[in-house]
Design brief:
With about 500 residues, the chain is of the alpha/beta class. The chain has 18 helices and 22 strands. It binds adenosine-5'-triphosphate. The site of adenosine-5'-triphosphate has 10 residues, from helix 1. Pfam families: ABC_tran, SBP_bac_3.
């Protein structure tokens, strides 16, 4: 996220708005700072859209004023600035309202030419780099009907951006889109925020608010009830009205509902960590995680789509709601717990350091020694914090692109040891002829808990998933899967943990 400074870009002072006798906004005071992304949440009819239209000068107000960069844009005597000035406040609606008979390029450059009086060439010079940035360069000669809903909405965003606005206002920009298209529009908003654009966004996408918003404001019945950091307003609201709304939205927005509606579940897996998930010789994906994913899909009575992820992008996919669940030998760690939710743990393991037996000395001897691990895993961090707790100087962790490569590095003596979850390390030892040569360092064992990762605030989906995991256990399926993949009996077969507790 870009840096926010305390310069007020939008200032709303004591705004009251009525339609006839009905007051729809009451004494609104609000500032939006430079580079800030302010998300407006609230029930239907609470006045969110009206507030955006007031900022933009599309609606008049009965009292107060709206300033943008200290210039009055709206006040009780009517809209205070010219149409050209008003175009400096970009607005994107739920319906993208593109001209159907015009190409993408014409749609985007029309206002630049008409309102800003730019030549066609100048307008194109502004528009094309923005179209390129949002990945639409190849579609500039397409007509709206030839584009997906997500692409049309991105064109609408570019059309506003081409006016080089000081702020951008979005009114539920994703609510008319299918689930799979929502993220491409949200990604465009995320990019805009990284570029430092000041934005006010009305949305029901709580995970987007958690990820991108600088602050979240909750409106109810025309009043600004609460404003603060996304985590505080969404997870720990202080006001009763906010609490009621959040509970309702969490239930309504459950992923479980989408999964059932779609008839399929998207489960993220990582395919380079045998025996959890890897490619069989024929190329088929197999492993503990794969079997677990099938068991879950069967219980939900939906088809299973396995989505191939990497260790290093697993969290991003969960955060961006690109997968419904992630079963990718994901360790439940404290830092991840701040961003996503975890199911009950389906496997307890231990992070260890595998070495040539002859090299094993005291734990203190590991200080500064090169140890390989697989990139994007929590292994290095977790072992480092175990060392820190014991006041020991830590080894020097070196990231390799997979567990197989990290193991090879140790085997070829490029590094002193290979660190991983024991269950994965064991797989590599058992496939070696000289397995007797290797041993885990006897003094290093940091407990790890494999859990399924899901996006936050969806208690309905999480509860269902936990119940399914316990059912998989209770019906004996878990034992079968366990015994298929952990033949070496290297792990005890445990009932999934009801609670995460370290
Ligand atoms: N042009 C209008 N004339 C009369 N009443 C209006 C007009 N526009 C909005 N309202 C009323 O003002 C109130 C606030 O509407 P607004 O569209 O701002 O709410 P909202 O929070 O954006 O709702 P939603 O989430 O459903 O879009 C509602 O009661 C609505 O019926």
């Amino acid at each position: 996220m870009s840096a926010v400074d305390k310069r007020e870009i939008i200032k709303i002072k004591n705004v009251n708005k009525s339609y006839g006798d009905v007051q729809v906004l009451k004494n609104i005071d609000l500032e939006v700072y430079n580079g800030e992304v302010l998300v407006l949440l609230g029930p239907s009819g609470s006045g969110k859209s009206t507030l955006l239209k007031i900022i933009n000068g599309l609606e008049n107000i009965q009292t107060g004023e709206v300033l943008i960069n200290e210039e009055v844009y709206n006040c009780k005597n009517g809209v205070a600035v010219s149409g050209k000035k008003r175009a400096e406040v970009g607005m994107v609606f739920q319906q993208y309202n593109l001209y159907p008979h015009m190409t993408v390029l014409d749609n985007v450059t029309l206002a630049v030419r008409k309102v800003k009086k730019k030549t066609k060439e100048d307008a194109m010079a502004i528009a094309i780099p923005i179209l390129r940035k949002v990945g639409l360069e190849e579609k500039i000669h397409f007509y709206p009907s030839q584009l997906s809903g997500g692409e049309q909405q991105r064109v609408a965003i570019v059309r506003s951006l081409a006016m080089q606005p000081k702020v951008m206002l979005f009114d539920e920009p994703t609510s008319a889109l299918d689930v799979e298209l929502i993220n491409e529009v949200l990604d465009t908003l995320i990019q805009l925020s990284k570029d430092g654009m000041t934005m006010v966004v009305v949305t029901h996408e709580l995970s987007f608010a958690r990820r991108v918003a600088t602050r979240v404001a909750f409106l109810d019945k025309g009043e600004l009830i609460e404003i603060g950091k996304p985590h505080d307003i969404i997870m720990h609201p202080k006001m009763e009205r906010t609490k009621l709304f959040m509970n309702k939205i969490h239930n309504e927005r459950s992923r479980l509902y989408d999964i059932k509606k779609r008839g399929s579940i998207n489960i993220g897996i990582v395919d380079n960590a045998p025996p959890m998930c890897f490619h069989e010789k024929g190329g088929e994906l197999i492993g503990f995680d794969v079997d677990l994913a099938h068991s879950i899909a069967r219980r939900l009575n939906v088809t299973l789509n396995l989505i191939l992820l990497k260790n290093e992008n697993r969290m991003d996919y969960i955060l961006a709601n690109k997968v419904d669940a992630c079963i990718a030998k994901l360790n439940h760690t404290k830092s991840r717990d701040k961003m996503i939710d975890f199911s009950v743990s389906y496997l307890q393991d231990c992070k260890k350091i595998l070495m040539y037996k002859d090299n094993i000395k005291s734990i203190r001897d590991l200080a500064g020694k090169d140890i390989a691990y697989s990139i994007g895993t929590s292994t290095a961090n977790e072992i480092e914090s175990c060392f820190k707790k014991c006041n020991l100087e830590k080894p020097n962790f070196i990231a390799y692109s997979s567990d197989a490569q990290a193991f090879e590095a140790m085997k070829n003596k490029l590094v002193e040891g290979y660190a991983s979850d024991e269950i994965i390390g064991n797989y590599f030892i058992t496939t070696e002829i000289d397995k007797e040569e290797f041993q885990y360092h006897p003094e290093v064992c940091c407990y790890s808990y494999f859990s399924i990762g899901v996006s936050e605030n969806d208690s309905q989906w999480l509860n269902e998933l936990n119940n399914i995991l316990l059912d998989i256990y209770d019906t004996g399926d878990y034992e079968k899967i366990f015994n298929t993949w952990f033949k070496t009996k290297d792990k005890k077969f445990l009932r999934p943990f009801e609670k995460w507790d370290v």
